[in-house]
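Worked Example 4.2. Read the sequence first, then its structure tokens.
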Amino acid sequence: MRTSDLKFMPMVALMSMAVMTSCSDDDNNGGNGGNGDGSGDNKYSQELFLNEANKNAVDYDFSNTFANFWVGTIDGGSDLSSKDAFFVSAPYKGAVQASSIWTDGWTLTNQIGGDNKPEQEAVETLNGTLSSGTKVLEANKKYKLSGSYTVKAGATLKIEEGVTLVSIDDNVVDYILVEQGAKIEAEGTAQNPIVMTSEKTEPGAWGGVHICGKAHTNVENGTGKSEIGNASYGGNVENDNSGILRYIRIEYAGYAFDEEHEANGFTFYGVGNGTTIDHLQAYRGSDDGFEWFGGSADVRYLVSTSNSDDSFDWTEGWNGRGQFLVAYQEAQSTLNQDCDCLMECDNNGNNFDASPVAHPVLANVTLIGNGGAKQGIRLRAGTQIELYNALVTGKGKCLTTETSQTEKALVNGTSVLNNVYIATGVECNGDE
């Protein structure tokens, strides 16, 4: 029973308000609805966003859309399945239909998370390095994590359904790092998910999961070092396989190593599309829920809930595909904190023209913020995007476009915004 369902209803009314000024029609000096020839000065505008062919909407009233948290869709939408076999047929706007609530059973909303097996003693404490072979965390058992646990090339960390992994509350920073050439095979189920949590049930308690692959990054020289663990990532193996992540909930991640290095829930560094990533929740972290540093990883069924920084974040040229993505930010009055963007979208912050250019293709997305003046979707730093069947509400600026490279791609049709409904107008900043 969801005792807090009624708390959501007042927030819906807040989220549906149009609280920002739209970009001027005077910004339109060429192009035709984001799918034109790119003539003129390549500045994007709300007029282009609203071109009839795009089937978008601004200032949309979402007060009757969401029956419960993020559950609710709007009829009509693009069917990408005929063009790309990765996508399943879902010709509606939004991520979670009332008739098929795929988030039930394994995700949390705004209740307290933590250890789901309070009476069970941990059978083992993980720390140090797995250098070779396969380490198995056995089904339905509890394990503890103390410090870093690094999976080296050639080794595999296998986590079976129902495992609970608990970060110890001490002065040691806890995280899991899967290096290039290593694998993690973590497969829960909807009825028996894998839960990675902390003894300290507060955002920022531990360091989350970091995976390094051999797919591309557009940083200089084509390779980088992970922010956490200083592990190498990048290359040219786009189908690189780092394993399987399925039905996993990470709670209370986001440990701040310093002002420049905070750990996300799930972090993907140059992860290839041979990796299976679906049915994951990042819950109440103090940094991003999910972040991609380059790579070609494809994803499905992701839920980012009440993470204080960005719900979804990409940079360094991520060009994977994604379907059924949810971001939900609990009301500030109960969360006791504001949250940043629902999607922060960069190509490369140091070089907007860096190649390969970030260009994810995303469909069936629901993004619900917790108020304030910040962005819902922030397209900047040269990123491209194809976004279909999206609902965006709960932010003062539900969609902003920044940098000339990003706007040019929207004007000439390289980027596509189709069947996107937002609760405010569009803000276009061009070179800002």
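Now turn to a second chain, presented in exactly the same format:
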Amino acid sequence: MFKSKRWNIVFLLSLGGAINYMDRSAFAIAAPMFANDLQLTPGELGIIFSSFSIGYALFNFIGGYASDRFGPKLVFAVSMAFWSFFCGLIGLAMGFASMLVIRVLFGAGEGPFAATLNKMVNNWFPRREIGSAIGVATAGNPLGGAVAGSIMGTLVLVIGWRMAFVAIALLGFVWLAFWLKIAKDRPEQHPSISPEELALIQQGQQGDDEEIDESSLPLSFYIKQPTILATAFAFFGLNYILFFFLSWFPSYLSTSQHLSLKDMSIVSVIPWLLGSIGMALGGYLCDCLVRKTGNPLLSRKIVLVVCLGASAIFVICVGNVSSATSAVTLMACGIFFLYLSATTYWGILQDTVARKNMGAVGGVVHATANVAGILGPIVTGYIIQWTGAYNTAFFIAGGVAVLGAISVAIFVKPLRLKDTKYVSVIGHE
């Protein structure tokens, strides 16, 4: 597998995701310390957690559109350089305002990553390997979160939270050097790809978009489709849980379960490790169902509804337990099922969106989903500030995800690309 150029690129994408997620987890781990140093209230801390998603959501679409226009290699390079610079700059924050601005710009740097990754996989893989490729490419995300817990906890204690972010930023620049050397936008551009691998990829992509001219597909068509809207809402539910976990679960363990920074750093690794396994297995599970059912869209729909629904139930239950062991166990199960569903959102887009539009449509869906990263941490922060407890916050996080799973069960169906209205649109393009 890893002798092939396409899997080498996937491995590099996975490492990039791991570095990105190291910050997400590290920021939450370091939150109690820098919140004390900067004298932040729970409400202000919630706003700072959400500030990342403002820049992130905006550049989900911009990055996706740019990857369609300029190619994913360049977009990834610019994104990682921007991300690394502002990650290091976190160490210079002097108060609420400066931390807020830095995190918004930092989020903008990471924003293009997911949609551009989807574009890269779409360019490099035959259809039958898409699910597995996305699963492996994104498995690094929770793995980075898992590693960050122990690494950040140690770094904060040894060199302080400011220098810890500088250390993570340096990893981003190292990854960038390898990316510029190895990656190409498309397999036919790679100077050392074998004729056999190139033929396998091209043959596996034959038939994509053959029913309709790619150039005639307007972006507006896709963003009005119930299938795309339901997928975006379910993705919103996934991200609500994810950002709730990223932002507030470490603080919950520290303040409500009274764990030390060292203990919190250790136990927070468990959900991330299970999440990484779930991410890798989710793509493989979808591909197995595709081979059994012969229906890619139905297969991804089944996995999404079952796994997102299961994740929501586990998260709701966390708010009703009294011990740290039970809380970590339930949250770990919730994150495992959450990440089992994680590849299906992109898979649904792969099954329904023309290749030329993949970056832009993926960017719109991802941007919509990441509004949860803006709302969730703020809502949670003020719930905690007003009630002094986390129970309601856990219930809301799970409830949003349940509604997302239900919307996919009802509305996700094959797109009717050749209905009268759409043909009329094309006729006027």
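Notes for the reader: The two ends are 43 Å apart (CA to CA). The chain has one domain: 5-188+219-427.
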